[in-house]
């Protein structure tokens, strides 16, 4: 429990320096597992800058209920696929905010099941050796939300 509190405290402190001038607000909501803890820490390290505010929560029905994705530039939810299903409170929240294009769902699983959701979705194994690779993929998706793609330039 002390490690969990220290981890959340560390992430909160790391994010405080960015809060005063944040142009980009990102919410990282995760289910508490060693893999997801490491994943959130890596994503935070990659995204942290003076104009980015990163909020981190451990998701539960109560925690998600208080979140409105319109308050954030991007929202990432990382959860476990249990018996080929996303947690019920996550599905309920995703349905409630189905029109929002700033939500990304990351689900860990062991099979080739694809979550039936209407938001951008990524699946991966909970392999601690793949934290960096998974974080890289998710950071690209997060940045794609707030950094518009530039059209290819053609030669005159």
Biggest sheet: strand arrangement? 2-1-3-4-5
DSSP summary: helix tally = 5
Secondary structure class reads alpha/beta
Radius of gyration from the alpha-carbon trace, in angstroms? 16 Å
Q: What would you call the shape?
A: globular
Q: Strand share of the residues? A: 15-25%
What are the secondary-structure elements, in order, as H or E?
A: HEHEHEHEEH
CATH-assigned fold name: Rossmann fold
Distance between the termini: 62 Å
Largest sheet descriptor: 5 strands, parallel
How many strand elements? 5
CATH superfamily: Response regulator
Count of all domains = 1
What does this structure look like?
- This protein has helices at 2-19, 34-47, 61-65, 88-96, 131-146, and strands at 24-30, 52-58, 74-80, 103-108, 120-124.
- The longest helix is centred in the first third of the chain and has 18 residues, at 2-19.
- The chain is an alpha/beta fold and 156 residues long.
- The chain has a five-stranded parallel beta sheet.
- Mean pLDDT is 81; it is low at 15-20.
- It has one domain: Response regulator (Rossmann fold, 3-Layer(aba) Sandwich), CATH 3.40.50.
- The chain contains five helices and five strands.
- Helix 4 (88-96) links the parallel strand 3 and strand 4.
């Amino acid at each position: 429990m002390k490690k969990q509190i220290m981890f959340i405290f560390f992430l909160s402190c790391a994010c405080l320096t960015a809060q005063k001038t944040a142009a980009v607000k990102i919410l990282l909501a995760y289910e508490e597992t060693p893999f997801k803890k490491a994943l959130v820490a890596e994503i935070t390290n990659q995204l942290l800058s003076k104009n980015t505010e990163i909020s981190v929560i451990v998701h539960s029905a109560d925690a998600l209920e208080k979140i409105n994705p319109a308050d954030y530039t991007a929202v990432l939810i990382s959860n476990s696929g249990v018996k080929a299903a996303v947690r019920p409170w996550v599905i309920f929240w995703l349905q409630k905010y189905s029109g929002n294009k700033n939500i990304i769902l990351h689900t860990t699983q062991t099979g080739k099941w694809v979550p039936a959701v209407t938001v951008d979705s990524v699946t991966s194994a909970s392999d601690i050796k793949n934290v960096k690779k998974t974080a890289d993929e998710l950071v690209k998706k997060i940045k794609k939300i707030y950094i518009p793609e530039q059209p290819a330039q053609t030669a005159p």
